[in-house]
């Protein structure tokens, strides 16, 4: 006698996309690498399109975020958000507190765009971050930071 195995069920997120975005964004606002990484899939890809290589996997992402938060002092200005069936697009401005090589503080603003794709479990499977390259280059050049 054979026993029928239950069909595999697709896992779907229990939260709406705006609620998932809010939960995810808290990790960035509070600079919590563990929280951010916990919301990504094990095989997640995080790619800042600034010439750097993509980060692969949850553990590598946690380390990447910790290094990023220790290196730069920045905050968010929220922009528009667009939600699809399994993704969101988020326009925002990064506000960086930097110093000129002589020590004088200044604030730089860099327009950003995130494209985040979720898997069926509601985990971030991929995050692509696009920067306004001219604004970023000007800010880092003024601060004497090679990029």
Automatic annotation (TrEMBL):
Protein name, per record: SnoaL-like domain-containing protein
UniProt domain SnoaL-like: residue ranges: 23-126
Pfam families: SnoaL_2
Superkingdom per UniProt: Bacteria
């Amino acid at each position: 006698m054979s026993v029928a195995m239950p069909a595999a069920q697709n896992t779907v997120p229990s939260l709406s996309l705006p609620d998932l975005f809010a939960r995810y964004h808290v990790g960035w606002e509070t600079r919590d690498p563990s929280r951010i990484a916990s919301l990504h899939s094990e095989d997640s890809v995080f790619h800042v399109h600034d010439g750097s290589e993509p980060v692969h996997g949850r553990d590598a992402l946690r380390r990447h975020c910790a290094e990023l938060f220790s290196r730069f002092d920045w905050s968010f200005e929220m922009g528009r958000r667009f939600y699809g069936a399994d993704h969101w697009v988020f326009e925002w401005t990064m506000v960086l507190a930097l110093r000129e090589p002589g020590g004088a503080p200044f604030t730089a603003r860099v327009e950003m765009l995130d494209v985040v794709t979720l898997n069926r479990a509601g985990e971030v499977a991929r995050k692509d971050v696009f920067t306004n390259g001219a604004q970023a280059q000007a800010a880092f050049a003024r601060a004497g930071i090679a990029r």
